[in-house]
Amino acid sequence: MSRSVRVLWDDALTSYDFGPGHPLAPVRVELTMALARELGVLDAVEMAGCVPATDDELALVHKRDYIEAVKRVSATGRPDRAAGLGTEDNPAFTGVHEASALIAGATLAAARAVWTGEAEHAANVAGGLHHAMASTASGFCVYNDPAVAIAWMLAQGATRIAYVDVDVHHGDGVQALFYDDPRVLTISLHESPRTLFPGTGFPEELGAEGTAVNVALPAGCGDSGWLRAFHAVVPPLLREFAPEVLVTQHGCDSHALDPLANLMLSLDGQRTAYAALHELAHETAGGRWIATGGGGYELVQVVPRAWTHLLAEVAGRPLDPATATPQEWRGLVRERTGQTPPLTMTDGRKPEFQDFADGYDPADPIDRAILATRKAVFPFHGLDPLP
Fold this sequence. Notes:
Residues 22-313 form the Histone deacetylase domain. It comes from Planobispora rosea. Pathway: Ketone degradation; acetoin degradation. One of its GO terms (biological process) is epigenetic regulation of gene expression. This protein is of the alpha/beta class. The chain has a single domain, classed as Histone deacetylase domain (Arginase, Chain A), CATH 3.40.800. It is 36% helix and 10% strand. The protein is built from eleven helices and eight strands. It has helices at residues 27-38, 55-58, 64-76, 96-116, 145-155, 172-177, 223-241, 267-285, 303-314, 327-337, 365-377, and strands at residues 5-8, 46-48, 121-124, 161-165, 184-191, 212-217, 245-249, 289-292. β7, α8 (267-285) and β8 form a beta-alpha-beta unit.
């Protein structure tokens, strides 16, 4: 078990709500925390509350006039399209500033706990809003909580922070906010920008000294290909970069059932990735690990189970995939959503992959994606791009 683990939670985190019918429904985090609680996952961690990030803390990455614009929308509910609020993706709603600042505050509290040594690992499953830019909302994201946390640690004196984003969408906001800063290594594995929002995340986006890393995977990629790509890129770079802290974003919209994207991972493949990142946190960052949620729009079958596995991994007590979901939780699912709940914590898959180091197939689209990233980035880090 990891030494000290803190999970940030406040019921008010579910107030980040764009309204009925919006894909980013807050019930997904409500059901996650309920499932984790019923399965005893939260018994193994220190639960802590959170407070909203202050304007000064948000201004570590966001423009002051943008923060003021969000606050005006928050007070009136009236759209401000220049700020990106009042669109189909980002509807304006009363209280949007307070709700968004609380999510940022929770991830910032996780960062503070890890940076000061109060906790070895910390998690905020309501966080991971990685698309927000310095002066505009984007892709369901108003304030970029991972970026706020990273910027705060840099202000405390951090010199090397690694950010790994496994959301199906490119982590464009975090990349953009640290694109010219060699102290921050951003690695994003995502569906190709040719087929999915936000249309960025090509291997040629290199950042400062090759510290922006993008693995653009073809639509239809499943567990074996995704894990092959992950292990071909992420571990070598983290070992070479040797971050002081590892920050990870765990959007689970790479799942085959997700309605907004086209990758084909299983819950079991995602769980395997969480375990790999946990190991890498200990191997490369002295165990200092901050984990957030992210995207994920299959609200019952995927998100609660995926992030409960994440919390269990963070806690150092991974769940047996065959574990049954509790009856109490199944009742809550029916009550809150009217849907049929999953019965176990697995999709019944056993993910396997062939190591890229054993050779590659230039005709395979996944291998081409891997090699494009390695050729673009590895030389900056003194690594051989070829297997």
